[in-house]
Amino acid sequence: MILLELFLTFVLIGILNFGGGYAMISFIQNQVVNIHGWLTLREYTDMIAISQATPGPIAVNTATYTGFKIAGVPGALLATLALIVPAYFIILGLMYIFRRWPDNKYLQWGLSGIKPMVLALIIGSAFTLGVENVTNLYELVLFGLAMLLLRKFNTNPIILILAFGCWGIFTANFIF
């Protein structure tokens, strides 16, 4: 029964979400944390950090991790496929529509409306994750430093993840 529930949840996520993995974060969180209670908010935010640090799309990594936590390897495979397959067919349909009518003003207007909504989803997810993960001045300083290095100096995110992870391990005994 849990496999069916897992499958239907990630099919729903795959069908109803637009804008890529970061736009899906809040919707996935609502499903796996708030509605089903499969993960705590802390587990979810940790999973997002791991999903970002590992190769592959963040939403797919999130689905795989959640499925594995709930039902082992079968759950991981099922959740991943349930997320990917609907998006695959939706993309095929959209590709046909945009190739057939590339200059259609209604399609262009629709995209103009969707873009700000997707940005709002991403910012909303960032805010939710920030409130959960930046809980003291030390973490706020690290967040600010990470933003500075990402934006001002175009530092590779993988290098930052590794460096900040090592920094956290190194300073854990001194700060906490």
- Approximately how much helix is present in the residues? over 70%
The tally of strands reads: 0
Distance between the termini: 42 Å
Query: How confident is the prediction overall: mean pLDDT?
Result: 89
Total helical segments: 7
Uncertain stretches of 5 or more adjacent residues: none
H/E series:
HHHHHHH
Radius of gyration: 18 Å
Overview of this structure, please?
The termini are far apart. The protein is globular. It is mainly α. The mean pLDDT is 89. It has helices spanning 2-16, 21-35, 41-53, 58-100, 105-133, 137-151, 157-175. Helix 1 (2-16) packs across helix 4. It has a domain at 2-111.
Outline of the structure:
With 176 residues, the chain is an all-alpha fold.
Characteristic terms for this protein:
mainly alpha, globular, 176 residues, single chain, 85% helix
Task: Show the helix and strand layout.
Blueprint: H1 2-16, H2 21-35, H3 41-53, H4 58-100, H5 105-133, H6 137-151, H7 157-175
Helix pairs in contact: 1-4, 2-4, 2-5, 3-4
